[in-house]
Amino acid sequence: MELWGRMLWPLLSGPGRRGGIRGWAFSSWQPHPPLAGLSSATELVNHWTRVFEKKGVPEARESSEYIVAHVLGAKTFQSLRPALRTQHLTSQQLQYIQELSSRRLQRMPVQYILGEWDFQGLSLKMVPPVFIPRPETEELVEWVLEEVAQRSHAVGSPGSPLILEVGCGSGAISLSLLSQLPQSRVIAVDKGEAAISLTRENAQRLWLQDRIWIIHLDVTSEGSWTHLPWGPVDLVVSNPPYVFHQDMEQLAPEIHSYEDPVALDGGEEGMDVITHILALAPRLLKDCGSIFLEVDPRHPELVSSWLQSQPELYLNLVAVRKDFCGRPRFLHIRRSGP
């Protein structure tokens, strides 16, 4: 069976890296003898590309390039000045590269190895097992921004929506929206304590903590929503767990071994959390408020059928958008009743 989205997600795609030899990635570093005869960045990239290929590590060259560039303080290998690619590396730099490369051989995602990753132009800290934001989720953010801009233009005032994100993970969606909608406010909830802690840290790193309320909350737990700090919201945004349970065993080792399965497993048809969000919509949304979801390509039809069976929710699936691979990936659902 073909798997979509998170399963086929290219682990190293996206806007690139920033940083140097710092962060959690070196917290357990132990010295290794430098590789004999290898002294330049280009030589190291070529060497580890061959090693990764031999060991069956996906995207071998991209992995080695990101690791070497990170140790040299660059975002990408291509951004290194030509002189830096050929000059001799220090013994410490060689040791760091070997340490990080050994983690990649254990199929640890590069995002966790480097300890940070870019999303919508923001550099976010990444810590296992908190879910790593995928490139297609940037398209979800862009769609929400388009919708906010259209609504603002229609009413003739700047966009200042109150947004609820369900399942904030690293905070990628919430913080991207806050950074591009200066008058917005966000409530970010997640059932994982590690995710709540990481979202809070990323918000502080980006100086966005004053406009975000981060709450440890399980969307499937009845009664917990009575404690939300603000009233009905304009928008609900979520990249919920949507993997069909039977597909979980087919996840790549990078995902299966390192990321929290709770952030992936959506139940038998991948709809468990999705239906909870939709069922809560009358209590969460203002009239004419919207829900934006990232889903499995099999879900638009399933969600449409489910909504038709729940007319009392007054929710309508108004648009489906495809991701950059041409798969139906995003849903816009609008509340239109009491």
UniProtKB/TrEMBL annotation:
Gene3D superfamilies: DNA helicase RuvA subunit, C-terminal domain, Vaccinia Virus protein VP39. GO terms for molecular function: nucleic acid binding; peptide chain release factor N(5)-glutamine methyltransferase activity. CDD domains: AdoMet_MTases. InterPro entries: DNA_methylase_N6_adenine_CS, HemK-like, N5-glutamine_MTase, PrmC_N, RF_methyltr_PrmC, SAM-dependent_MTases_sf, Small_mtfrase_dom. Its EC number is 2.1.1.297. Keywords: Methyltransferase, S-adenosyl-L-methionine, Transferase. Residues 43-115 form the Release factor glutamine methyltransferase N-terminal domain. Residues 163-247 form the Methyltransferase small domain. It is an enzyme of class 2 (transferase). It comes from the Eukaryota. It holds the Pfam family MTS. GO terms for biological process: methylation. It catalyses: L-glutaminyl-[peptide chain release factor] + S-adenosyl-L-methionine = N(5)-methyl-L-glutaminyl-[peptide chain release factor] + S-adenosyl-L-homocysteine + H(+). The keyword Nucleotide-binding does not apply. GO terms for cellular component: mitochondrion. PANTHER family: HEMK METHYLTRANSFERASE, MTRF1L RELEASE FACTOR GLUTAMINE METHYLTRANSFERASE. This is peptide chain release factor N(5)-glutamine methyltransferase. It comes from Cebus imitator (Panamanian white-faced capuchin).
